[in-house]
Amino acid sequence: MSEESESLNEEERSLFRPFTRESFAAIEARIAEENAKKKELQKKKEEGEIVYGDDDDEEGPIADTNLEQGMPLPNRLAQQFPDEMVGVPLEDIDMYYHNKRTFVVISKGKDIFRFSATSAMWLLTPYNSVRRTAINVLIHPLFNFFIICTILSNCMLMITPSTPVIESSEVLFTAIYTFESGVKLMARGFVLECFTYLRDAWNWLDFVVIALAYVTMGIDLGNLAALRTFRVLRALKTVAIIPGLKTIVGAVIESVKNLRDVIILTVFSLSVFALLGLQIYMGVLTQKCVRKFDFNSINWTHQEYADFCANA
């Protein structure tokens, strides 16, 4: 019995293998082998040896929804996960990605972070110390806590009356958001590969908010100062930081998509009643009946105006 448990533990631990240059070479070999098979299959189809539409192709593995980016490690694996591998780049634990250039990092909270195995920003390989430091900073719970506190502080200052001190604090908040984006860029890369910075739609919001912050700081917009109102979008940055909140928002968006016909019907019905009320009561509710009106008075004092309002 003990031998079986030891073999099971060894099997579970074998899932968590450090991502090395040999691991990347093995991925490249599997990709090359798969491409060769596709070319051979395409050649056979062109020569008529295989008829189009035949189900001769072997179906590949399906992505495990429990092992997606941002999901917590399943309990079965979390119990076997060695603590010394926290923050260490590992070979992908989902068989769906066995022939894709990816690797995973497990955080201290046992959350899954998936990264592209290609060079970030065309310079930082997965083995680069700068990129590994950025990954460790990105997945650390204190980093997320610091960003959330920054966002909440920024929101509190935005609802207070504007003062020179509050306006100058925008430089500090913009610098913190820029630092956050810089960490993500060094850890993930920019946009070309999967799981990079701009491949996440929530990071588009970060990019736009930071760009508008620098535009409003560096350019005198004059009448276009209304762009400063886009600062309120910073509150939505918390969705990208908290994985559970991102899941809830995604579910709400999917629900709204399924209710699109009901929403269209509701808006149409409200529009009809709004137009009906506008035609019936247009200008009527702005009028007031008084017992006596002095047509000779033009400039009223405050007391005379108060008496007029009380003359209803």
From TrEMBL:
Its subcellular locations are:
Membrane
Alphabetically sorted, this entry's keywords are: Membrane, Transmembrane, Transmembrane helix
What are its GO biological-process terms? Answer: membrane depolarization during action potential; neuronal action potential
| Chloroplast recorded as keyword | no
Query: What residue spans carry the region label Disordered?
Result: 35-59
Q: Where does the record place Basic and acidic residues bias?
A: 35-48
Give the UniProt entry's GO cellular component terms. voltage-gated sodium channel complex
Query: Which residue windows are transmembrane per the record?
Result: 137-159, 207-227, 239-256, 262-284
Topology in the lipid bilayer is annotated as: Multi-pass membrane protein
Spell out the SUPFAM superfamilies in the cross-references: Voltage-gated potassium channels (SSF81324)
**What is the official name of this protein in its record?**
Ion transport domain-containing protein
